[in-house]
Amino acid sequence: MDVRILKSSFAVVERRAEHAVKFFYSHLFWHNPAIRELFPASPEDMERQRDRLFAALTHVIAHLEDEGLVPYLRDLGRDHRKFRAGPQHYAAVGTSLLAALAEASGAAWTPRVEKAWAEAYQVIADAMLAGAAAAEDREPPWWDAEVVRHLQYGEDIGVLTLKPHVPFPYLPGQYASVSSERVPTTWRTYSIGNAPRPDGTLDLHVSRIERGRLSTALVRDVQPGETLRLGAAGGRLTFRRADRPASLIAAGTGWAPIRAVLEDLAEHPPDQDVRLFVVARDAAHLYDRALIDEYAAACPWLGVTYITPAPGQHRNQATDRLATALGSRGMWPDQDVYLSGPPLFVEGTALLLEGLGARPGRVFHDSVPAAGRGHGPNGRPLGFGEWFLARPSPHWHNPSGRSPGDRP
Ligand SMILES: NC(=O)C1=CN([C@@H]2O[C@H](COP(=O)(O)OP(=O)(O)OC[C@H]3O[C@@H](n4cnc5c(N)ncnc54)[C@H](O)[C@@H]3O)[C@@H](O)[C@H]2O)C=CC1
């Protein structure tokens, strides 16, 4: 790949980003009407989708020389099997992408630039398709899972227990992408709130987001007996056993992956001391406090600090209180830290910890996009391929019986 040409070409395209993205989708849908069906129907969701394309492209360009790029792309390809993305879709997207880049580049679109982009796209598509092919024999494209229990805490928090129809592999601390027939074409990631169980069930902790259609459906509408769909598990919030202390810091339903990690540690005790900070907007949102207290009493290696805002204060004042608590503890350079919670909380706390001396390579968190922002400076890798076919409707109950574009 000619990285130099790609970067300078991208700098030109970047100035006309909005135009390029609109052109891309118009071109794609005009030439491939059936693909339109795979993308969100609502203008609002489609708008987010547009943002994703550019975020995605920016991400690729920023990581062109990264050795993690190909493994990541392979993983992404594996995950895109849930969209039933086939070689023909990758080809269609590639053609429209080149057309959009040419359009936005104007006179800067030379044969050399075109060649560089075509080659780069081929590398991306090949890596994703290779990842998909390698997964083909190992696992299904997605897992259907029955809701077997639905607990609601207050207005906005739901804990759903799912029973996948076939075993769903994951590690404590990982998340899965989730889709419901109630909100077709929408996938969101939710952390799994337990370590793997013998009966194969898993818990999703969902905090309802204002205007979040899937989170609202999951918290308020979904009933036991319904089927949800899961994409392959992912994420880096898995515990590293080491001979130094560790801190687990959870805010809101960011508690879910930390709970899974703790469950596993309780089963297989660590040699290191572990300090748990649980931050919540109020006492009612410390919905698992009884369980945490049990762990604290039973596990000599565990210490727990609960943090809520002072009475009458805004929920985010809990974060200020956490900052004070973290500042008063030393040893940050010698610790592993696991962070989970709202994106701005995670971003801010990671920076604070670095300021306190924590080593960036020892602060672990998933990067998740802030709700409504689509992506953040530290956003979850939106997947510089998510725009390939993100949010299409997977063919719901009988995948093999439908051709792309059929409505479920
Ligand atoms: N792996 C991960 O990192 C996971 C992240 N999450 C994310 O956690 C969030 C959970 O939301 P809720 O439970 O509704 O949390 P919440 O809105 O109740 O917030 C909990 C606490 O986080 C802090 N906080 C929230 N927004 C903040 C901000 N902008 N700046 C500083 N501090 C802030 C405050 O102290 C607040 O009391 C969701 O955004 C979800 O995507 C959820 C599960 C796993």
UniProtKB/TrEMBL annotation:
Protein origin, superkingdom: Bacteria
Acetylation is among the record's keywords: no
CDD domains, A to Z: Mb-like_oxidoreductase
Keywords, sorted A to Z: 2Fe-2S, Heme, Iron, Iron-sulfur, Metal-binding, NAD, NADP, Oxygen transport, Transport
PROSITE patterns assigned to the protein according to its UniProt record, in alphabetical order: FAD_FR (PS51384), GLOBIN (PS01033)
Cofactor(s) listed: heme b; FAD
Domain named FAD-binding FR-type: residues: 140-240
Pfam families: FAD_binding_6, Globin, NAD_binding_1
EC number per UniProt: 1.14.12.17
Positions of the Globin domain: 1-133
GO molecular function: 2 iron, 2 sulfur cluster binding; heme binding; nitric oxide dioxygenase NAD(P)H activity; oxygen binding; oxygen carrier activity
Catalytic activity: 2 nitric oxide + NADPH + 2 O2 = 2 nitrate + NADP(+) + H(+); 2 nitric oxide + NADH + 2 O2 = 2 nitrate + NAD(+) + H(+)
Family: Belongs to the globin family.
Listed name of the protein: nitric oxide dioxygenase
Lineage of the organism: Bacteria, Bacillati, Actinomycetota, Actinomycetes, Kitasatosporales
